[in-house]
Amino acid sequence: MASRLNSPADIARMALKRLAELGLAPTPQNYTKFYNEIAGIAPAVKEEAEQSNVQLVANVQHVVQEAADTTGGLADLIRDHNDDIKSSIHSLQNTQDTPEMMRLLQAIVHTATNMHDTVEDSHDSLRELTASLNQMRDDLAASRHALERDPLTGTQNRQGLDMLLNREVQRCRTYQAKLSVALIDLDFFKQINDRFGHHVGDKVLIHVSNITKAVLRGNDVLVRYGGEEFLILLPETDLHGAKYLLERLRLVFRNNAVMHEGKRIDISFSAGLAQLAADENGHALILRADQALYAAKNAGRNTIIAAPEHVADR
Ligand SMILES: Nc1nc2c(ncn2[C@@H]2O[C@H](COP(=O)(O)OP(=O)(O)OP(=O)(O)O)[C@@H](O)[C@H]2O)c(=O)[nH]1
To answer: What Gene3D superfamilies would the database entry show (predicted)?
Structure first.
């Protein structure tokens, strides 16, 4: 049970403890690596996404500046052309000389044609700029998606959880809807790594997230919460429904062992469940699920425990 922690301070403490246990120096690199591992954050993806976001913002600034230049230039040119046409019309009204009238008319046609061409050019360049901005919007969405995904299992990571949870809690308040969370921690996962190697451990994590996703409904969200710990957000689900789902999941785990070199690797999990109370926030809800998970581990593992009802603060 690697990640039992919610606050950054707890995660930081745990990261330092890990470094000390392994006899590693608490360098910024080592500290960051362990902090991210415990918090379930993929550093490479995070850094890459952050860097590309900085690049993206610079690109957006550039395109917006170009658009401003284009429209500003267009306004100036139209004003100049307008002045020319006005002046030619004025001269036209004050002359009776036919050749002069012809010259002035030609000048007006010429200016109007220039104006038309200028507007056409600006239109094309603004269309190109809009296309660039649309492309950037898509890049930004893709980069945000990558930032919120766990690269190993493809599930949501903790990065996007706060926003999702707040949204669901808000929805429950507005519509008096139900929301439960399940915190699942694989039992004795370290032994799988130790016995078969880290790559088999990884394979087990992928397998676990795949079979879990197959059991969940479309609205449910599976989050890789820590190393071998998963959180499931269950909208429109009370504690009874959450228990039913987790029991089903336990059966699915039992019937779908990972096969490695012709041998079964049996996997079980412990889980803590909690249903959102009317006056509770998302953080407190997860904390109760976490305490229930602790109780499930202490009860001997392969156990599902529902948190007692939330007692309102006085
Ligand atoms: N293969 C693999 N192992 C991971 C990953 N993330 C965390 N782990 C391992 O998960 C193990 C968790 O070990 P423990 O915290 O002792 O928990 P456990 O062995 O599951 O024991 P209990 O939770 O108490 O039942 C550690 O060995 C971590 O290195 C990962 O992405 N891949």
So the answer is: 3.30.70.270
Q: Are residues 208 and 289 in the same domain?
A: yes
Number of domains in the chain: 2
β-bridge pairing 304-306 and 263-265: unpaired
Closest ligand 1 atom, CA of 185? 23
Q: How far is the CA of 228 from the centre of ligand 1 (A)?
A: 5
For residue 139, what is the domain's CATH number? 1.10.287
Ligand 1 centre and the CA of 2: distance in Å? 6
- Say if ligand 1 is within 6 A of residue 225 CB: no
Tens digits of residue pLDDT in 22-42: 767 766 666 777 777 777 666
- Where is the domain boundary, 147, 176, 198? 147
Confirm whether 25 is domain-assigned. no
pTM: 0.68
Report the distance separating Cα 304 and Cα 254, nearest Å.
14
Highest mean pLDDT among 13-17, 28-32, 74-78 belongs to 74-78
Q: Kindly give the distance from the C-alpha atom of residue 1 to the centroid of ligand 1, in angstroms, as a whole number.
A: 6
Q: Of 228, 229, 247, 261, which residue is the catalytic one?
A: 228
Domain-terminating residue out of 119, 147, 175: 147
Distance of alpha carbon 110 from alpha carbon 73, whole angstroms: 19
For 16-31, b where at least 16 C-beta lie within 10 A, e where not — what string?
A: eebbeeeeeeeeeebb
Residue 228 Cβ inside 6 Å of ligand 1? The answer reads: yes
- The pLDDT-based confidence of 3 (bands split at 50, 70, 90) is very low
Give residue 83's domain range.
49-147
Taking the C-alpha atoms of residue 135 and residue 251, their distance in angstroms, rounded to an integer, is 45
228 in active site: yes
Do 220 and 140 lie in a common domain?
Answer: no
Q: Same domain for 162 and 240?
A: yes
Task: Please report the ipTM that was assigned to this predicted complex.
Answer: 0.95
